[in-house]
Amino acid sequence: MKKFLLLVSISIGIFTNAQDVKKDSVVVDTVKHWSVLGKNSLMINQSAFSNWAGGGANNVGWLAGVNYNITYEKDKDLWENVIVLNYGQNNTSGLGVRKTQDVINVSTNYGRQFSKSWYLSSGASFQSQFAPGYEDGNNPKAKKLSNFMAPGYLNLGMGITYRPHDNLTVTLRPINARWTFVLDKELQVAGTYGLKADGDSSLLQVGFLGTAIYTLKLMENVNLTNTASVFSNYLDRPDRLVLAYGAVLSLKVNKFLSSNITMDVLYDHNQIEKTQLKQTLGIGIAYTLDNGVKRSDRKDSQWWLNKK
């Protein structure tokens, strides 16, 4: 009888231990290496006037946007992909429809960790716009300034990436090829976007590219996302830097309502020899998709929080 009870006890112990191992293995298996954070938004703005002594024109506008960050993190591998698509218009009484926002920005960056927060990296980025742009808003009778792939920018480069946490990513590429495409024949004029001769459809530059993304939580449901980049052409006037800065202030009302204020500053000698500035404000519907937990979001990897 004693031998029987001893055998039962051993069997129960083995079974319990096996269940614990199985439970732990399930926890490990549920860790996702892919994470998707995306924001889909539709913003509306409108103004109406009737016998208003101060004057003004009735107008209504809209702005649609998609902003996705798709990241793969496993062991020493880090692969981050960003997709930003924005387009908006405004219809003003007496002036007609004008474009207010037009952005295509897609980038990918792969890094292999060689030290804490540091990665050897390589990547590519593409920027352009959806529709033609004119000197007088969207008026096709005015002088055309831009179009889809006119300009279009393609960057390919290698360097290092510093990423201590999800809110800060800095990439430095001392080797970077930058192609400028002007595929609209009306805009293929020497000097336009740096083209060397009439009829040229592209321009190749080789130089240094630095980019940074920093997200700051100002208060609950209020975030400020900063992006910046600098490019220097080794082959022609490296002192003429291409500088860009963008800021997006997001104010979340609830799960579906939010407000965005954006500001973009750009200086590119090949476009115009002046600082360019753009600002937008929108209130509307926004839906955020958050699927998966990034490796650097997990508490066991947030070493900087415990750093004294």
UniProtKB/TrEMBL annotation:
Top-level taxon of the source organism: Bacteria
InterPro entries: DUF3078
Pfam families hit by this protein: DUF3078
Name this protein carries in UniProt: DUF3078 domain-containing protein
